[in-house]
Amino acid sequence: MKQTADARALAAALEGLKRRSGLTYRELGSRVFVSSSTLHRYCSGRAVPGDYSLVLRIARECGAGPEQLHEVLRCWEGATGRSRDPEPVRPDGDGEAPVQPSAAGRDPASASAGTVTGPPVRRRFAAVRLVLAAVLALAVLGTADAGSPSASRTAVKPIPAGAAGWARAPLPVAPELFGVTMNSFSGAMPSFRVGSLRLWDSETRWSQMEPRRGEFDWSVLDRLLDGAERQGLPTLFVFGGTPSWAAPGARKAAYPEGARAAPPDDLDDWSAFVRALVRHAGDRIDAYELWVMANHPHHYNGSVGTLVDMTRRASRIIQQEDADAAVVCPSVTDLWREEAHRYLLRFAELGGYQHCDAAGVKLFQRHVTDPPETMLEAVRRTERTFQRAGYRPPVWSTGTTQTLPLNDPLDADTAANYAVRFYLTGLYAQNRNLERMYFYAWGNGKVPVVVQAEGQKPTKAGLFVGRLQEWLAHARIRSCGHGRQAALPDNVWQCEFLVPDVRGVLRTARIRWTHLGTAEVPVGAGARRVEHLDGTVREVDARDGERITERPVLIRYG
After folding, report:
1. Listed residue (394, 439, 444, 399) closest to 419, CA to CA
2. For residue range 51-108, what is the model confidence (pLDDT) as tens digits?
3. What is the C-alpha separation between 350 and 330, in angstroms, rounded?
4. Cα–Cα distance measured from residue 333 to residue 298, given in angstroms and rounded to the nearest whole number
5. Over the stretch 27-61, which tens digit does the pLDDT of each residue have?
6. What phi and psi, each to the nearest 5 degrees, are found at residue 53?
7. pLDDT band at 164, cuts 50/70/90?
């Protein structure tokens, strides 16, 4: 990397702050959620952080004052050639700012985006308020006429909370976002395209793999990992199910082998299992979720303090044995309930998130028939809780509620629409640090939305999820918005991407859908093709419109 003067100055400033803090690279990295090697590259000048908020977190953890913050951020701007893009909030304090519609006649598909000035900005950290007094400039998205009065609209429920739009410099759409939880122990893999796997309800509980102290049965795990390796899929392993011998006096959990929801009586037994597992798996496991549904008594009924101690022990062992593996903190469920946020806060107060690379949560609708976009309210509430705790970790959504199988199945069309929009909602929430979505579940034919029961062909839902990933292969996402904030009818949602064409040239593409009802929307200047999830394609030009429904469509431009 060729260093500029600003890049060298930024590296020197970061290294100086770290040195004065007395923290090691590992200690500081765990606090700002980057690896020690990545942090060292930033401090040595071999790399420049791509996100200004990471620079702020590093400086803040090192105790930087206002003048130091100003200097570090000035160097970052010079090194990246970009201005700071602080997160805005609306005057009502909901932590959001809308994406504004484009000026009349402007065509963002073929011209560079303009800007509009947003509302006054409140900064996340108190020290930053002393330095960053500015207003937000957002990239202008969407066609000017898309939300015109001529567009037909259907009466819809209120727009889900937490759904404000956003825009930023384009970032790659990571294939790993499109995860599935494996409800199978055979080693069979999905026959439609997925991006990552999660092992739970796959006969890989601790109680099954270590039925007696020191005696291990890795056969099921090996079958699953071998299958994942054949497909080239990264795997997230989930801990849960304490063996009866490790907590003989504890209440039994709802598993046939007599597993306990309690922590082991002796945490050395926990440490020994973690070490044995990581050593056996080697680099075949890419990430570890340190307990499943930690705030649900059917899965864990010990104290938060004990869970933090288990997290600390496991994280240290995993980093010793496989430094490249990601550590995901125990997942928290029922985020619609205030008790879940109190649990998350307590775990944070006791230092649990300092030992992890990401936070685990369970995102699902209040009711299985609710639109997937309603999950954004839970995402927003979770982000606020982390802000109260002083953290902004990457977030992985690692499953659903354990009562999901009690619901009736959705009809095939609704199930297919919801499965695709589950992942689109995850993309929409990337401005809130959401990185992965694991759909529950592959191999299970007794859940409301079945993507593929083991031994059967993919359902329409599974095929549509695969098509969505084909659309977004090698794509870069640059914005999401809905309704008037994106110059669209109130019930229409949109995410905008740069997608390579057959020659590898990046072209604008937009995925549009409704959370309920339909709307007639002009495709906009530069549009050339509309693609549907069933594989049908319609050639269009700027004069055409498209009927947007609850089934997403892709519009290609250029």
Report:
1. 439
2. 666 787 788 788 887 778 888 888 888 888 755 443 333 323 333 333 333 333 333 3
3. 14
4. 12
5. 787 677 666 767 888 899 888 887 666 787 788 78
6. -65, -30
7. confident
- DSSP string across 408-456: PPPPHHHHHHHHHHHHHHHHHGGGGTEEEEEEEEEB-SSSSS-S-BTTS
pLDDT tens digits, residue range 406-436?
Answer: 888 999 999 999 999 999 999 999 999 999 9
Give me the residue label for tokens 């509309």: 530
CA neighbor of 299 nearest in space, from 205, 405, 363: 205
| Spatial distance between the Cα atoms of 148 and 322, rounded to a whole number of angstroms | 55
CA 294 to chain centre: 19
Could you give the CA distance from residue 39 to residue 45 in angstroms, rounded to a whole number?
Answer: 10
Tens of pLDDT, residues 492-502: 999 999 999 99
Residue type, 478: R
Residues 499 and 172: their CA atoms lie apart, in Å, by: 10
In this structure, the strands spanning 359-361 and 545-548 are: unpaired
Q: How many helices and strands (H and E) does the chain possess?
A: 14, 19
For 466-502, the pLDDT digits (tens) are 999 999 999 999 999 999 989 999 999 999 999 999 9
Beta bridge partners of 360: 396
Which residue bears the tokens 């062909």? 457
Length of the chain: 558
pTM (2 d.p.):
0.76
Q: Contact 468/552 with Cβ under 8 angstroms?
A: yes
Whether the Cβ atoms of residue 352 and residue 329 lie closer than 8 Å to each other: yes
Tell me if 120 sits within 8 A of 133, measured CB to CB: no
